[in-house]
Structure formats: structure tokens, C-alpha cells
Amino acid sequence: MSGKSIFIVGASRGIGLGLAREFLSRGWSVIASERSPSEELHALAGEGLRIVTADVTVPESYDSLDLGLGSLDCLFINAGISGAKHQSSEQATNDEVAEVMMTNAFGPARAAKRLLPSVRDGGTLAFMTSQLGSIANNTGGFELYRASKAALNMLAKGIAEQNAGPRGIGTLALHPGWVQTDMGGPNATLTVDESVTGLADVVEGASGKGFRYTDYAGEDLPL
To answer: What pTM value is reported for the model?
Structure first.
């Protein structure tokens, strides 16, 4: 047993559910959030798992959680949607832009700031992002999703500098790879187990303050 603890925000399915399962298997105590009841998450119920209801776009849903100061070794914000099917900046409505930006960028950043007191000094803050958020590697397309993840990377870097760093908390912006989930589709190159094994390795290997934009294999990505 590692004796460590993690709060995974967004663990009802896909990669988030896989992360909850993986960290439990490594002996971590896991707090896992769902927006609505998840049979698969509740099937993991047992010693070491606490399930709560939270939504990154609804601050009162996590503000009311009694986590305790410095109780977590890691806070992992795993929330994201692909956005409107057309993915076009030309076709996007105000509501479509607001939805993807609040869910993928500003909601996670706000949740991280408000929940950061629950992370111990020297702990880890992790955000699930994507390599599609890299401006340096931008080849066009998927405009709504790309823009939201680029915004998340920007906000995560700012939190690392202003909020997490002064307390020695390292900040990770993590790309999970192309994963076989509802979002990634059946043709993706990685299984959920392969992705979350790598992601958990990166989290467990994190040390000290600073910001890293990296993938599930620990390879750094250009912003």
C-alpha cells in the first residue's frame, strides 16, 4: 500500500474510470467524482474508494466537499468534451464556444484553484489535456477542441506559476494518447489500460514544483 491519496475529478467512465481503477490497484486512496451515477464506478466500491458528485462547471458541487487541508497527494482534473460535431470556428455559436471553453478550460482551472488547498505542499496537480492543444504542433482542424485545450494549457501554466509553485506543488498537463473511449473511438491506438498505466507512472514520478506538458509515456510536448 502506498498510503497516498488522489482526487480524480471526472471518473465515471473512460480514462477517468480507468485512472480510478489503476490508482486503487497501486494502493492509493481514491476520491472519484461523477456528475451522475455511474454503475461502472460504483462497481469499484470498496476500501480505499470514496465516490462524490461534482461537476467542474458547477462550483457549488465541489465547494461543499469536505476534503480537508493538505489531505491529497494529487488532484487530477479529468474533464472534457469534444464540443460541437462540426468543430468549425465559422459555424460555432456563442453557446457552443461557451460550453466547450467552460467544460475543458475555465471550469477545470477554477476547480483546481478552489481545491488546491486540499493538496499537500509538495504534492501534484494534474490536468487532462491533449496534444491537440499544442500551438507549436497545430496542423489545423478540430478548432473548438484545439482552442479549448490550448486555453487549458495556458491556464494550467499560470496556476503552476502563481498558485501551485509557491507551495512546491508540481503541475502536469497530460496528454493521454489516442485512446479507445467514446471520444477516441474504436480505431484509437491505445486501450484505456495502456493509457492510464502510463499516466499513473507519470503522476507517481512527479516531483517538485514546476510545470510539465507531457504525454502518457512521459515524453514532453511543445506548447
So the answer is: 0.96
pLDDT, tens digit, 9 for 90 and up, residues 33-43: 999 999 999 99
Helix (H) or strand (E) holding 123: strand 119-128
Select from 71, 78, 65 the least CA-distant residue to 20.
Answer: 78
As a whole number of angstroms, the distance between CA 46 and CA 88 comes to 44
Q: Coil, helix or strand for 65? A: coil
> Exposed, middle or buried by CB within 10 Å (0-12, 13-18, 19+), for 163?
middle
Rounded CA-CA distance 78/17 in Å is 10
Distance (Å, whole) CA 146 – CA 155: 14
State the first-to-last Cα distance of the chain, in angstroms, to the nearest integer: 36
Tell me, what amino acid is at 160? A
Q: 27 near 73, Cβ under 8 Å?
A: no
Residues 127-176: tens digit of each pLDDT: 999 999 999 999 999 999 999 999 999 999 999 999 999 999 999 999 99
CA dist., res. 209 & res. 55, Å (int) = 27
